[in-house]
């Protein structure tokens, strides 16, 4: 039986979803890939993430130690480049992950297509996340955001029409911020 995904925010694009494998719970940092505080092994945390993103079934990527090491490399690279998109070291880290895969053009009965190829399949999920980040940059780099809550480390892709989303989720951080502002206003009176 597979454990349920304990993360507070799921369903984001793969690159953002990878960033969200670290979160805060009751003021303490939690890491899906560290597993210890969640009653999971590191590889079980990876298995949960692969299933949650659809990469396990869709691409057949395996949850093993080598894949985890490469995915942690990609997560660090993405975290650094999202925090500072102009950081040459962060850009080099993302490029280093991208060196481990490529896109091959294909022609199928359904028409033109693409297929990702990896010399080492253990790099597949890491490369897929880095490649997804490039796709997100092409479609709207300003839409990749960190939650506006000071106590939250989660990221999201703002797909709202006017691009003004501020919270990872209204239920989690938005309501908390609104309640805090309301409390401050009523306390001043």
Detailed description of the structure:
This protein is an alpha+beta fold. Helices cover 47% and strands 16% of the residues. The chain has seven helices and six strands, in the order αββααααββαββα. The chain has helices at 14-19, 42-53, 55-59, 65-83, 88-98, 124-139, 170-188; strands at 22-25, 28-31, 101-108, 111-118, 144-146, 155-157. The strands form three sheets. A two-stranded antiparallel sheet has the order 1-2. Strands 3-4 form a two-stranded antiparallel sheet. A two-stranded antiparallel ribbon has the order 5-6. α4 packs parallel to α6. The N and C termini lie far apart (54 Å). The relative contact order is 0.14. The mean pLDDT is 91.
Features of this protein?
two-stranded antiparallel sheet; 189 residues; 7 helices
Topology:
Layout: H1 14-19, E1 22-25, E2 28-31, H2 42-53, H3 55-59, H4 65-83, H5 88-98, E3 101-108, E4 111-118, H6 124-139, E5 144-146, E6 155-157, H7 170-188
Antiparallel strand pairs: 1-2, 3-4, 5-6
Helix pairs in contact: 4-5, 4-6, 5-6
Shape: globular
Q: Assign the structural class, choosing from mainly alpha, mainly beta, alpha/beta, alpha+beta, or little secondary structure.
A: alpha+beta
Number of strands: 6
What proportion strand? 15-25%
Kindly provide the radius of gyration, computed on alpha-carbon positions and rounded to a whole number of angstroms. Answer: 18 Å
Amino- and carboxy-terminal Cα gap: 54 Å
Biggest β-sheet, characterized?
2 strands, antiparallel
Estimated helix fraction: 40-55%
The count of helical stretches stands at 7
Strand order of the largest sheet: 1-2
Which segments are poorly predicted (pLDDT under 50) over 5 or more consecutive residues? none
Taken in chain order, the helices and strands follow as HEEHHHHEEHEEH
pLDDT averaged residue by residue:
91
């Amino acid at each position: 039986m597979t454990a349920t995904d304990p993360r507070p925010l799921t369903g984001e694009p793969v690159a953002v979803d990878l960033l969200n494998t670290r979160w805060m719970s009751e003021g303490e940092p939690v890491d899906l890939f560290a597993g210890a505080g969640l009653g999971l092994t590191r590889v079980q945390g990876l298995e949960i993430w692969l299933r949650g993103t659809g990469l396990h079934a869709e691409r057949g990527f395996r949850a093993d130690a080598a894949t985890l090491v490469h995915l942690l490399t990609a997560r660090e690279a993405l975290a650094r480049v999202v925090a500072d998109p102009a950081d040459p070291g962060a850009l080099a880290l993302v490029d280093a992950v991208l060196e481990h895969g490529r896109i091959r053009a294909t022609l199928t009965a359904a028409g033109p297509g693409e297929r990702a190829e990896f010399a080492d399949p253990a790099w597949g999920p890491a490369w897929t996340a880095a490649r997804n980040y490039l796709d997100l940059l092409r479609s709207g780099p300003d839409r990749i955001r960190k939650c506006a809550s000071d106590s939250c480390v989660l990221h999201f892709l703002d797909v709202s029409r006017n691009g003004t989303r501020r919270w990872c989720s209204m239920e989690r951080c938005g309501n908390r911020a609104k309640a805090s502002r309301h409390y401050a206003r009523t306390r001043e009176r």
